[in-house]
């Protein structure tokens, strides 16, 4: 890896991608997006805000949570149907109108 190659890292505050040089590592930089001050991290090292070590936000993307919830509900439904706890048809068919005309 080229020691002089610029790299990008996410702002610890607003997650905007910021370009920096290896010479900037360990120096204080300012985010062009939110204006916050932070230390430029080493490339490839997880960003840690200030001295709060081990408190890096570990959030799942929303779509992953949605997919996980749908999959979990599907598994619960399939298991419920297999055990006979949940009827296969959740809704009864609509009743036939009593006024249906017969030929
Ligand atoms: Zn920022």
What's the short version?
The protein is α+β, with helices and mostly antiparallel strands and 103 residues long. It has one helix and four strands.
Molecular structure report:
The protein is of the alpha+beta class and 103 residues long. Among the domains are: 7-39, no CATH class; 61-86. It contains one helix and four strands. The mean pLDDT is 80. The chain binds zinc ion. Zinc ion binds at residues 11, 13-14, 16, 31, 33-34, 36.
The biggest sheet amounts to:
2 strands, antiparallel
Low-confidence stretches: none
Q: What is the CA-atom radius of gyration, in angstroms? A: 28 Å
Order of helices and strands: EEEEH
How confident is the prediction overall: mean pLDDT? 80
Q: Termini distance? A: 85 Å
Bound molecules: zinc ion
User: Percent of residues in helical segments?
Assistant: 10-25%
Secondary-structure blueprint:
Elements: E1 7-10, E2 17-20, E3 28-30, E4 37-39, H1 62-83
Antiparallel strand pairs: 1-2, 3-4
The protein binds zinc ion.
Please give a handful of descriptors for the protein shown.
two-stranded antiparallel ribbon, binds zinc ion, alpha+beta, 21% helix, 14% strand, two-stranded antiparallel sheet, 103 residues, single chain, rod-shaped
